[in-house]
Every structure is written in structure tokens, then in C-alpha cells.
Amino acid sequence: MVTRVLWRKPTLVLVLVVGFCYGRQDKSVRDEFEPVLQPPNRVSLWPLPQKVQISDVSFTLSSSSFRIVDGTGSSSGPDCALLQDAYRRCYEYMFGFAKKSGPNHSRRTGTAELTELQVLITSPDSECDGFPGLSSDESYELSVNEQSAVLTARKVWGALHGLETFSQLVYEDENGAKSINATKISDFPRFAHRGILLDSARHFLPIKVILANLETMAMNKFNVFHWHIVDDQSFPYMSQTFPDLSKKGSYNPYTHVYTPTDVKRVVEFARLRGIRVIPEFDTPGHTQSWGKGQTDLLTPCYSGSKPSGTFGPVNPILNTTYDFMRRFFKEISTVFPDAYIHLGGDEVDFTCWKSNPDIQQFMVEHGFGKDYTKLESFYIQKLLDIVSTTSKGYMIWQEVFDNGVKLKPDTVVHVWINGASNEEMGNVTAAGYTTILSAPWYLDLISYGQDWQRYYKVEPLNFNGTEAQKKLVIGGEACLWGEYVDGTNLTPRLWPRASAVAERLWSAKDVTDMSDAFNRLSAHRCRMVQRGIPAQPLLYSYCPHEYKGI
Ligand SMILES: *[C@@H]1O[C@H](CO)[C@@H](O)[C@H](O)[C@H]1NC(C)=O
Ligand SMILES: *[C@@H]1O[C@H](CO)[C@@H](O)[C@H](O)[C@H]1NC(C)=O
Ligand SMILES: *[C@@H]1O[C@H](CO)[C@@H](O)[C@H](O)[C@H]1NC(C)=O
Ligand SMILES: *[C@@H]1O[C@H](CO)[C@@H](O)[C@H](O)[C@H]1NC(C)=O
Ligand SMILES: *[C@@H]1O[C@H](CO)[C@@H](O)[C@H](O)[C@H]1NC(C)=O
């Protein structure tokens, strides 16, 4: 996926330049909100729960006595490693960064102490050992009152979100004592698919960076890691069926690859945080790196009557292409447990196909005329049939839908082209397909100022369509393409800008107050910093606990 510059309007470029040179003087590019310096550690929930009531009654918490326990009658017990792991994380978020003052410091006279959070899973099947999916129940209820706190969820997925929310309720009072107020929260996501796309092909992303971002995704209640794992530039995925793909197609076959163990680690780390991993293997375009390890896979381009030595998209006219795809996606379907695979299908350049006499002949034989979208559809159709036999569902970029390819009813169409994306959402849902939105959330397109506001103001259902159509919008994804991003700058570039998308996809539709969002997001960003995530600032301000480097 190339981030097209087509739709970067000239006016925007002008503002960029002005902003860059005169940002300090020019009021027209001044940010909408002046910073409001928060009292340190004010409670700030992000994303905002659906229903929340916080009272003025507060309790202290002490690291020596506070415990998180399985509630009596919970369907999940000490054998649920997923929850035990989440309890530890929650405890660390609450106390891991406390001043070394000992438990006594946190005792305030006349204030009750909260000593326990009980976690109760009510459904007989907690799904502790399962994988999260599109229809997972992520809801939870949280109640904190006199000396007891109870987190109730039907499944572990809701409990994970509830634990994160609980940790966000804890603040340091003016004496540095950990405190929490009596609270009632009832929460569930507005959209089921809340994703982040990372691109490990334009630049290799070390596993450590990927894991740190999964961790941060969980702090923001994102639940899909869309792993754009290979592209033209490199093929870091180590295939067991076709080892030459990464041996020859990666930047380095020893240091710049994801081994089967690496992939397992990412998938499990994500699962423990309620995050699905959807890999993208984009074809027939964006496949230059595939060709290095698999001869005859790509179309030879011609210069006049002779092959030019360069290659184009996957060669759609050879049976061997489909034999390869069958074996390749059989492996992918077992390596990645999620019910969906992203098959790409975007930005296919027809120049090479047009130059190749064998392709031209094939076009004639199949009555495609001069319409190369028909050839593209021919390929995608066969690929979709192949992937269907693995019993996986598929996601595809919008061009596949635009070109009229026959899709399974449960296909997820990924809308990414900016400009008419509302109209596209209308078209896709009118045709009965589920869809996710990314067009306004290309976070790799950076500009001066508080661009999180732009992401935050997006309303995914703002298109002309029936209620039934709107139900087909299952969520969206923030995309961070990797042309200018690697392990050095990924995390600060993504956070907290992606947090704006997180709240839009989780919280109620009417959560749109920009100044409240600014205050909460500033505090949330400081919280991420305190937890060791180098999230960049929104605007001038300070954090009670500044980033100390690595
Ligand atoms: C928590 O309680 C304290 C008083 O104990 C109050 O000052 C504060 O505003 C409360 N916090 C919230 C978020 O309501
Ligand atoms: C904490 O308080 C207890 C009882 O009040 C006392 O025995 C103990 O010495 C105190 N510990 C510290 C580190 O001050
Ligand atoms: C390719 O497969 C088609 C359909 O199975 C078959 O008719 C055709 O002969 C095959 N071509 C070659 C070159 O094997
Ligand atoms: C939506 O469909 C209409 C009618 O087919 C078409 O004219 C329009 O170009 C489509 N919009 C987009 C964004 O593709
Ligand atoms: C809905 O359709 C009307 C009439 O065609 C148009 O004026 C309006 O801009 C559309 N709204 C959106 C959000 O696309």
C-alpha cells in the first residue's frame, strides 16, 4: 500500500508550510485548545466508558495489602493464565511506579482502605483458553464501593478491559497516596473491530517493538492487530512450506525475519490482551519481494517483443500460480488462528500485464477485451475460492469490491481511499457487505499541529444509508504505513494519535466534547509515558512522571 499523495490537497500543503515557519506567531494555525494544566494524576478514563458515575467518596489503596482475586462463583479460577497475567499487569500499572515510601505513607487518617478487587466471570465458558474474535463479548461492569470492588464480565475479554479501566481509576492524591473513588461503570464497545495496522515490510519491525505496541493497544482497548507483514520491499515472514520466500525476499534472512516462534509469540502475547492478529498477504500487486524466492510467480514485463527483465504483479494466467497460492494459504490458515485473513488486492498496476504477449492472448481467449480489471477479478476470484477452502473468512481492500468481484457474504471490505469514503461506505453496505473504515485514519500522513483532533472528529456512520446498512459497519483501523517508520519512531508517532481513533471506535457516538477529550487524552498520554511508552505530547504541557528514556 503506497500512501498516495494525490489527495493531499494544495491548500493543506500551504498550511503545512506556513505552520512550519510561523507556527509560533500565526493565529490561523494556532491550536484550537490552550493547554489546561491538570492537577497531577486526576482521574481520566480513555476511552471513555459507556456509562460511568464517580462519587466523591474516596478510598486509599496500599501495595502491601491490595489484592486482585477470582470472585466466588466465577467460572474462571487460578488455572486461567490469561487472567492471572492480567491481574499482574493491572497491579503493576497501579503500584509499579510508586515512590519508594513504604505502605505507611499511603495511610490517610479517616480514609477507608480498599483491599480487594474481585473478578467474576459469569458465563460457564470463560473463553480463557480461546482466541478473541469478531463476535467476542467484551462488555463488563465495575463497581467500587466501601471496601470492596467487583468486576463482572461474561467472558475474559470483558474482564481484560475492566481491569484496564480499574487501573485508570487509581490516582495519587496530594500526599502521593494511591486512591480510588467509589465508582459504577457499565461498559461495552460501540464497534467490534478496532484495529491498528502496522507495516513490517517497508521497514523491519523488531518483535520487541511489535509487543510494546500490542501492550499499548490493550491500554487503549484496541482489539485487532492488522499485520501488514510483507510487501514489495521485503518478505520477512518465514514460511515453512516455501522457505526461499524469506531467505531471498527479506532484507536479511537471519536478522530481518519472523520465525514461526516469533509469530507464535506475537499471536499469544496478543491473545493474552484480547487482541486478534489478522495477517495481510497482499496480492496480486505489492508482491515484488515474493518473486525473489518463487520463480514464475510474477508476470515478466516486456519491452517491445522481448522480456525486459523486470516483473509485475502475480502472473494470473499460470496454473502454477494457483498451486502455489493453495499451498501457501493452507500454511497461513494454520499459523494464524484468527477466523480472518486480509488478502489485500489494492493498487494493481496494469502496465506490466499490458506489455506481456501471453497475457494479451489470455485476455482475448477469455473475452476480457482491453479491460484489465477483468483479469484482476479473474485472479482474485480464484484466490478467494482457494482461501475459502481453508474455512477462513477474508478481508480485502476496497478495490476488489469496486471491481465487482463476487465476494462471500461475510467478506469485510476495507475502505481506505480518501475523498469519497463516505459514499464508498454507502455503496459497500448497500451491497450487503460488512465494512471497516481506515480512509480518514492514515496516521503515517503527518502534519503540523494537533492532528488527533481530525481523527477524533470522524463519525464512521456519517454516510447516507439505512439503519440496516449502518449495522454492517463493524469498526475501523488506524494505519501506520512504514515508508518512513521503523523501530526508532513507530511508538511515538502512533501514540497518542491512535488513541483518538480508539475512543471514536469504543465510546458512545455523542462523546465528542473536544476540550474534555483534550484533558483526558493529555492525562492518558502521561499515563502511557509513566508506563514506559514513549507517547508523544499533544501540545506544551508536562507529565508528573516524565519519560526517562530506555
Ligand atoms: C474523588 O473524590 C475526591 C474527594 O475524596 C474528590 O475531590 C474528587 O473530585 C473525586 N474524583 C472524581 C473524578 O470525581
Ligand atoms: C508502618 O506502620 C506500622 C504500624 O502502624 C509500624 O509498625 C511500622 O513500623 C510502619 N512501617 C514503616 C516503614 O514506617
Ligand atoms: C490449467 O488448468 C486448466 C483447468 O484445470 C486446464 O484446462 C489447463 O489445461 C491447465 N493448463 C496447463 C498448462 O496445465
Ligand atoms: C458508488 O456507487 C455509485 C453508483 O454505482 C457510483 O456512481 C459511485 O462512483 C460509487 N462511489 C464510489 C466512491 O465508488
Ligand atoms: C447524503 O445525500 C445527500 C443528497 O444526495 C447529499 O446532499 C449529502 O451530502 C449526503 N450526505 C453524506 C454524509 O454523504
TrEMBL record:
GO terms for biological process: carbohydrate metabolic process; ganglioside catabolic process; glycosaminoglycan metabolic process. Its main location: cytoplasm. Its EC number is 3.2.1.52. Disulfide bonds join 80-128, 301-352, 526-543. Residues 1-23 form the signal peptide. Residues 191-508 form the Glycoside hydrolase family 20 catalytic domain. GO terms for cellular component: cortical granule; lysosome; membrane. Keywords: Cytoplasmic vesicle, Disulfide bond, Glycoprotein, Glycosidase, Hydrolase, Lipid metabolism, Lysosome, Signal. It is found in: Cytoplasmic vesicle, Secretory vesicle, Cortical granule; Lysosome. GO terms for molecular function: beta-N-acetylhexosaminidase activity. It catalyses: Hydrolysis of terminal non-reducing N-acetyl-D-hexosamine residues in N-acetyl-beta-D-hexosaminides; N-acetyl-beta-D-6-sulfogalactosaminyl-(1->4)-alpha-L-iduronyl-(1->3)-N-acetyl-D-6-sulfogalactosamine + H2O = alpha-L-iduronyl-(1->3)-N-acetyl-D-6-sulfogalactosamine + N-acetyl-D-6-sulfogalactosamine; beta-D-GalNAc-(1->4)-alpha-L-IdoA-(1->3)-beta-D-GalNAc-4-sulfate-(1->4)-alpha-L-IdoA-(1->3)-D-GalNAc-4-sulfate + H2O = alpha-L-IdoA-(1->3)-beta-D-GalNAc-4-sulfate-(1->4)-alpha-L-IdoA-(1->3)-D-GalNAc-4-sulfate + N-acetyl-D-galactosamine; a ganglioside GM2 + H2O = a ganglioside GM3 + N-acetyl-beta-D-galactosamine. The active site is at residue 347. Residues 45-169 form the Beta-hexosaminidase eukaryotic type N-terminal domain. Hydrolyzes the non-reducing end N-acetyl-D-hexosamine and/or sulfated N-acetyl-D-hexosamine of glycoconjugates, such as the oligosaccharide moieties from proteins and neutral glycolipids, or from certain mucopolysaccharides. The isozyme B does not hydrolyze each of these substrates, however hydrolyzes efficiently neutral oligosaccharide. Only the isozyme A is responsible for the degradation of GM2 gangliosides in the presence of GM2A. During fertilization is responsible, at least in part, for the zona block to polyspermy. Belongs to the glycosyl hydrolase 20 family. There are 3 forms of beta-hexosaminidase: hexosaminidase A is a heterodimer composed of one subunit alpha and one subunit beta (chain A and B); hexosaminidase B is a homodimer of two beta subunits (two chains A and B); hexosaminidase S is a homodimer of two alpha subunits. The composition of the dimer (isozyme A versus isozyme S) has a significant effect on the substrate specificity of the alpha subunit active site. This is Beta-hexosaminidase. It comes from Channa striata (Snakehead murrel). The lineage of its organism: Eukaryota, Metazoa, Chordata, Craniata, Vertebrata.
